[in-house]
């Protein structure tokens, strides 16, 4: 058996004339957390639904655990856990019953299931809320219940589809820590999000999608290193004339400089001691300035450069 | 898995306030309202006549054929139920005692050349008993001749008398069921069809194209149809229990007789509940819209109930005159008719035909649902 857990080859999914997923391929290796990054409507959830065989697709191949995925591939499904984007719990059942119901779809043995349910509740910090109905829980707790229902049966592949949408920072941290812990325990994970900082924090590899296509792939550093911008220097100063901006653009490694709302932003494509060179120029011209800040590129910058737009939503 | 889903579905359904309200409580409230509206009319329905319990006393030396005739009238026929329940007494005193104690409703005292009808008050019973005597006397010569020469032909003569007793023909002797009970039959039909709501709720939580829980369910390694059948069973059981409560409430608390043994009424109503659940399953497998899943079962139930006579008593007859096929395809009418047939005429062929139609409808709904639901993935979600 290879170390490939999920392999998607040239997936195409059309909704009538609209192409939702366009020749998309991905591979998740054992022990990885693969981030699937993209704006709303980029095709992440459609890809996940195709991988799970909930959606039919027009072209392509999906292999999970080296077997072809299909709606009746129960042996594959039994090893997959899913935390869907929207909360998927039964409002008429309490916390314990919800986890027990969904865990029971995978685990037949009653004692084993009871143990797993208790462990999932412990893991998500819901042990004190067993008798609560979902409507009585806060948004963060409901999200945690959503996770508990998806992971209670201890799957070896877990798919998280934007699990932190509308979650407060404390709960978000708890969720991200939990995901890392599950990964350390041996689960391979696909994590979709449009929050780039989350993906950067937990994912060992990242795929950026837009309009159903893969637009970039690599580790967070690979992606950042692929950018033309390697460093930005922001300097607070009063209004300056075009000649000065032209001079600054002439400094070594500076490829762009823009002034707006009392701040000059200088973009550099590499080099060393760039800040020193810029400040030397300011000194030489006797230009007044206030705060000075240097920034390294983020995944958001990567996305902007690749797609030429801000993340939607 | 089947039993777990079954038990969880029961748990879920009884915790849904709108199901408890509409399926469990509303029929009880409506039954009470019907009772307040025309409960007394049912109890005192002038068109209702129970089997008359009558004593027969023969005077000294009397050896007439009248006893044979009234014994024939004590048998159920396919046209109507038992008209008389005859008990022979040795003396008029003993019969009078029984009459005073209201053990019987009248006495035929045959003495000399006459047959006397003794009752405690005038009314429908005394008129009926007198009518029988008159008819006998009109045919007395024929009776005597047939009984002496060809006793096996007595049945034919009795039938002939029956056909001429137009006065008695208007009444349903079998069970004493009032025409107004049709409203309660229609109420049970409505309650049973309300169960279509139960199954659309159940389907919603099991199908990926209807809810997030459905997606989670279909991602799991379980057979969807098995789970849906567990849900159907749970819904049918709950609706049958709910209907049984209504049936017992009407029979024992409101004191209105359904016109048939209560276990038979419960059994037929359970079949109707299964029909309602099956219709809901079909609706759930066709419609994807949340609003449609609530409104279609409601609209369907109320329309069928209206045409079965829930709001307007004679509508079934009007439909029968102008478009009889509607009565055969309206599940509420088929159900009310089956109860009516059973209550008034017993297990006639029309009764079995109604049961057959209900079973056929269940089968058709489930087969179409299975054909739609067996598809395991979706074009869009």
Q: Can you tell me about this structure?
A:
- The complex is a heterodimer of chains A (313) and B (381).
- With 313 residues, chain A is an alpha/beta fold.
- Chain A is built from eleven helices and 14 strands.
- Chain A has a six-stranded mixed beta sheet, sandwiched between helices. Chain A has a four-stranded antiparallel beta sheet with strand order 2-1-4-5, with helices on one face.
- The longest helix of chain A is centred in the middle third of the chain and has 16 residues, at 169-184.
- The radius of gyration of chain A is 24 Å and the shape is elongated.
- Chain A starts with a strand and ends in a 6-residue tail after the last helix.
- The model of chain A has no long low-confidence stretch (mean pLDDT 91).
- Chain B folds into two domains: 1-44 and 178-380, no CATH class; 52-162, D-Maltodextrin-Binding Protein, domain 2 (3-Layer(aba) Sandwich).
- Chain B is 67% helix and 6% strand.
- Chain B is built from 16 helices and four strands.
- Chain B has helices spanning 2-14, 17-43, 66-72, 92-100, 124-149, 154-164, 166-169, 181-204, 212-219, 224-253, 262-286, 290-307, 315-322, 324-329, 331-345, 349-373; strands at residues 52-58, 84-89, 106-111, 114-118.
- Chain B has a four-stranded mixed beta sheet, with helices on both faces.
- In chain B, a hairpin with a 2-residue loop joins strand 3 (106-111) and strand 4.
- In chain B, helix 2 (17-43) runs parallel beside helix 10.
- The longest helix of chain B is centred in the middle third of the chain and has 30 residues, at 224-253.
- Chain B starts with a helix and ends in an 8-residue tail after the last helix.
- The A-B interface holds A 15, 49, 52-56, 70-72, 74-75, 77-78, 80, 82, 84, 86-90, 92-93, 97, 101-102, 104-106, 108, 149-150 and B 1, 4, 8, 11-12, 15-16, 205, 208, 211-213, 215-222, 376-381.
């Amino acid at each position: 058996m290879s170390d490939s857990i999920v392999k998607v080859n040239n997936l195409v999914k059309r909704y009538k004339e609209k192409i939702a997923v366009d020749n998309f391929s991905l591979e998740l290796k054992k022990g990885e957390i693969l981030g699937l990054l993209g704006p709303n409507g980029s095709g992440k959830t459609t890809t996940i639904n195709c991988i799970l065989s909930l959606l039919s697709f027009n072209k392509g191949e999906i292999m999970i655990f080296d077997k072809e995925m299909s709606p009746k591939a129960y042996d594959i499904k039994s090893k997959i856990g899913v935390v869907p984007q929207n909360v998927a719990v039964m409002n008429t059942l309490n916390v314990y019953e919800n986890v027990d119901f969904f865990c029971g779809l995978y685990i037949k043995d009653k004692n084993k299931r009871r143990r797993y349910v208790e462990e999932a509740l412990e893991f998500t910090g819901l042990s004190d809320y067993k008798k609560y109905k979902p409507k009585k829980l806060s948004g963060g707790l409901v999200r945690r219940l959503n996770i508990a229902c998806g992971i209670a049966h201890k799957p070896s592949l877990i798919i998280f589809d934007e699990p932190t949408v509308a979650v407060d920072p404390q709960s978000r941290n708890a969720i991200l820590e939990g995901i890392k812990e599950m990964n350390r325990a041996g689960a391979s994970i696909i994590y979709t999000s449009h929050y780039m900082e989350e993906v950067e924090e937990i994912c060992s590899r990242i795929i950026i999608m837009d309009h159903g296509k893969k637009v970039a792939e690599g580790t967070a550093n690979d992606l950042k290193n692929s950018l033309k911008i390697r460093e930005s220097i922001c300097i607070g100063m009063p209004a300056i004339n075009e000649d000065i901006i032209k001079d600054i653009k002439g400094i070594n490694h500076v490829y762009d400089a823009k002034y707006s709302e009392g701040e000059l932003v200088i973009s550099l494509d590499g080099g060393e001691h760039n800040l020193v060179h810029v400040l030397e120029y300011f000194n030489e011209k006797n230009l007044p300035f206030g705060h000075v800040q240097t920034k390294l590129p983020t995944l958001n910058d990567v996305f902007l450069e690749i797609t030429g737009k801000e993340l939607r939503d | 898995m089947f039993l777990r889903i079954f038990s969880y579905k029961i748990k879920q359904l009884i915790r849904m306030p709108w199901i408890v309200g509409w399926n469990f409580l509303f029929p009880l409230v409506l039954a009470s309202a019907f009772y307040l509206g025309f409960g007394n009319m049912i109890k005192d329905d002038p068109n209702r006549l129970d089997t008359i319990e009558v004593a027969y006393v023969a005077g000294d030396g009397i050896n007439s054929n009248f006893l044979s005739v009234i014994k024939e009238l004590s048998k159920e026929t396919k046209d109507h139920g038992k008209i008389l329940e005859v008990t022979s007494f040795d003396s008029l005193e003993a019969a009078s005692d029984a009459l005073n104690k209201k053990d019987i409703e009248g006495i035929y005292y045959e003495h000399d050349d006459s047959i006397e009808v003794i009752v405690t008050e005038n009314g429908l019973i005394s008129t009926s008993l007198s009518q029988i005597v008159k008819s006998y006397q009109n045919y007395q010569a024929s009776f005597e001749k047939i009984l002496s020469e060809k006793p096996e032909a007595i049945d034919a003569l009795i039938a002939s008398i029956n056909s001429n007793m137009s006065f008695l023909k208007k009444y349903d002797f079998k069970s004493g069921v009032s025409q107004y009970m049709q409203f309660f039959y229609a109420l049970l039909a409505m309650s049973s069809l309300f169960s279509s709501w139960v199954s659309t709720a159940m389907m919603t939580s099991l199908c990926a194209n209807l809810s997030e829980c459905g997606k989670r369910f279909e991602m799991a390694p379980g057979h969807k149809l098995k789970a849906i059948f567990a849900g159907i069973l749970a819904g049918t059981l709950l609706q049958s229990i709910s209907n049984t409560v209504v049936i017992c409430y009407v029979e024992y608390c409101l004191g209105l007789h359904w016109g048939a043994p209560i276990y038979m009424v419960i059994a037929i109503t359970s079949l109707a509940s299964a029909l309602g659940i099956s219709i809901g399953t079909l609706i759930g497998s066709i419609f994807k819209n949340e609003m449609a899943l609530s409104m279609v079962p409601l609209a369907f139930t109320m329309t069928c109930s209206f045409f079965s006579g829930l709001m307007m008593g004679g509508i079934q007859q009007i439909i029968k005159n102008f478009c009889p096929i509607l009565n055969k395809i309206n599940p509420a009418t088929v159900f009310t008719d089956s109860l009516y047939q059973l209550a008034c005429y017993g297990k006639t062929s029309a009764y079995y035909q109604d049961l057959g139609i209900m079973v056929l409808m269940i089968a058709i709904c489930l087969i179409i649902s299975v054909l739609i639901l067996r598809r395991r993935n979706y074009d869009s979600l």
